[in-house]
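Kindly go through the following sequence and its backbone structure tokens. Advise at your convenience whether the structure tokens fit the sequence:

___
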Amino acid sequence: AVSSFAIAQSQDFTPEDTEAMRASAEKHVNQVDEVVGLDAEQRTKVMAAYMHVERELVAVNHRFDRSGFTEDERSREMNAQWIAMEKMLDFRLKETLTGTQYAKWAEVSK
């Protein structure tokens, strides 16, 4: 997951946070909170994880826009990027939530 972000950054591009990104991340945090009941510290960490995903998406799209990929190539590459981002997000959630919370979230988010 970090590799695509690093690649995008190495092309002199650093995504800037927007209200839309924050709103999307907040929506996801609220979904997690509704399922597992986050405390304040967890909420902050989960928000950071989802903001990382938002930044990653902007960086990947920026890189793709400059890549000259065909639609098919872009689709295949984006699928790989989604898998990497989901793994990173899962790792961060597993790191932040208690075992019981993580199991509950994993069951609901399948």
Q: What stands out?
A: The two ends are 20 Å apart (CA to CA). The CA atoms of residues 45 and 96 lie 7 Å apart. The helical segments are 2-10, 19-36, 40-67, 71-96, 99-108.
